[in-house]
Every structure is written in structure tokens, then in C-alpha cells.
Design goal:
Number of domains: 2
Strand order of the largest sheet: 3-2-1-8-7-6-5-4
Structural class: alpha+beta
Number of strands: 14
Radius of gyration: 34 Å
Strand content: 35-45%
Shape: globular
Oligomer: single chain
Number of helices: 7
């Protein structure tokens, strides 16, 4: 009896073991398929399309804003009419247009009275990105690029009742020219020549005491180097600015037939004003900064 039970248990264990182990005669294993080889000469991802944004905005006396917002990109054109009670409403209903407006300095006219014919050029370069700003009275042109790519051309024209902003963004000069041939030509010409050498402010419309003002902007280690020279009420003025020294301002007057310079070194305009209210006032007059 015990022998029979032992045989039954052995047989049962054999059946269970057989069910847990794979059958040897199940046939050869099929290896998983190999991933397909990348096609030879595979094309690189297509570059992003160039985009043109145009914002025309008018500001009424009560602060209400009206105008048009046009975006051209990838062959498609989107156009919207703008009506907003104020700037807050513009940001809420037309966020992209408000962002462009804010980056361009807002809607208020900021051209100083009597300086409508002033022309200046500045150029900066940092981390491979070059930026040129050309100001001609109420019109400001900004050009940016990073080693021939990531191009941006922005033209801001300020008017007595508003502003017009036209901005182009493109991955390359060819893409910009394809979108807008005139804009591509303007970018190429101004980026090549903008900011080179001293820039003279044109005398037409400029107060007589400022007709001899010169602005020269170039490069400095770590930031913009700006030098402004001019004359005001018999005094010779020079302002030198860079990231390391801050503001170095020299006012030279004649005393007993000899030049008598006064020099101020300040980290910023507030620091300059603490040293000399007159120097700070002249700084504001010649730079237009507050």
C-alpha cells in the first residue's frame, strides 16, 4: 500500500514539474526582429518658418487702444482688429501683441522735443549674439543674430498718437529673404554697416548748443562701451560708459584762458546725481535716459 502511494506521489510531482518547464520540442526560438536601419542620407529636420508680425496701434486721450495685429508665418496670414480699453485689457485679449509692444518700449512717444533728427547707432555682442540698434528720430531699427542664425529685424516707428511695430524672425538670412525680400536686404545691409565708427547727430532740428554732439558706440569687455562728446553753454562734455567703470563724466570749462576739467566717476545715474546735480542733468540731456 505504501509502495502504491509513493508511486502516485512521484507520478504527480513529475506531471507538475513537466508543466512548469518549457517543452524541449517546442521548436527553435525566433529572435526578435532587428530595428530597421536608418535610411542613408536622411534629411535633417526642416528649419522653422520665418515669421512677420505687424502691430499698428493708436492710443486715444482716454487711454483706449485700437489698431490691427497681423502675423504671417508658413504661408498663412492671421489678421485681427484690436480694440482695448487700456493696456491691461490689451494684455488680456491680445497677449502676443502686448508682448511685442512691451519689448518695443510701449505705445507712448518717447522722442525728446527738438531731437527728431537725431541719428545714433549702437552695437553689442555677447555669447555669440550680435545686436545693432539704429535710431533715426522717431524710427528705431533693431537687428539681432547669433552666428548667422536666429535672425530678428524689428522696426519701431513712433507717431504722435501711437506706434507701428514690424518684426521679422527667421532661422537664416535665406529664410528671411524668402519671406520678405526687402526686409532681408535691409537686414544684410544694416547689420554689415551699422555701428561702425563715430556717428554724428545731424544738426537739423537740434538745439544749437548740441549741434557738435558726437556719439561713438563699440565693444568693451563684458558689455557696451559708449562715448558721448559734445558742447553745452561753453562747456565741453564727455561721457564714457562701460560695464567695468560705470559712468565716467568730464565737464571742461575755461578759466583764465586755461581748461578746467571736472571729472565724476559713478556706478550709475543715481550715484552721479549724488555727486553733482548739474552733471546728472547734463547726462540726462545728452543721453535721453532717466
Amino acid at each position: 500500500m505504501l509502495l502504491v502511494r509513493g508511486l502516485l506521489v512521484a507520478a504527480l510531482l513529475g506531471v507538475i514539474g513537466a508543466s512548469e518547464s518549457p517543452a524541449e520540442d517546442a521548436g527553435p526560438k525566433v529572435p526578435p526582429p532587428e530595428p530597421p536601419d536608418a535610411p542613408a542620407g536622411q534629411a535633417e529636420p526642416a528649419e522653422a518658418p520665418a515669421t512677420k508680425r505687424t502691430l499698428t496701434l493708436r492710443k486715444d486721450r482716454d487711454g483706449a487702444l485700437s489698431g490691427r495685429w497681423i502675423v504671417v508665418s508658413g504661408g498663412a496670414t492671421t489678421e485681427k482688429e484690436i480694440k482695448a480699453a487700456d493696456l491691461s485689457a490689451l494684455k488680456l485679449d491680445f497677449a502676443e501683441a502686448a508682448k511685442l509692444l512691451d519689448s518695443a518700449g510701449g505705445v507712448d512717444v518717447k522722442v525728446a522735443a527738438g531731437l527728431a533728427n537725431v541719428v545714433s547707432t549702437s552695437r553689442t555682442e555677447s555669447n555669440g549674439r550680435r545686436k545693432t540698434v539704429i535710431t533715426a528720430g522717431p524710427k528705431e531699427t533693431t537687428l539681432e543674430e547669433r552666428r548667422g542664425s536666429e535672425l530678428r529685424l524689428r522696426v519701431v516707428t513712433r507717431k504722435s498718437d501711437g506706434v507701428e511695430i514690424v518684426e521679422h524672425e527667421a532661422p537664416s538670412l535665406d529664410a528671411l529673404k524668402k519671406l520678405d525680400a526687402a526686409a532681408g536686404k535691409e537686414f544684410q545691409e544694416k547689420q554689415a554697416g551699422g555701428g561702425a565708427g563715430p556717428i554724428q547727430i545731424r544738426a537739423g532740428g537740434v538745439p544749437p548748443q548740441m549741434q557738435q554732439l558726437f556719439i561713438n558706440r563699440g565693444f568693451a569687455a563684458g558689455g557696451v562701451d559708449r562715448t558721448i562728446r559734445g558742447y553745452f553753454r561753453g562747456a565741453e562734455l564727455q561721457i564714457v560708459e562701460n560695464a567695468e567703470a560705470g559712468i565716467v563724466m568730464t565737464i571742461t570749462r575755461s578759466a583764465d584762458g586755461r581748461p578746467k576739467p571736472e571729472e565724476y566717476t559713478a556706478k550709475d545715474l543715481k550715484d552721479l546725481e549724488r555727486q553733482s546735480v548739474e552733471a546728472a542733468a547734463l547726462y540726462r540731456r545728452f543721453t535721453g535716459e532717466e
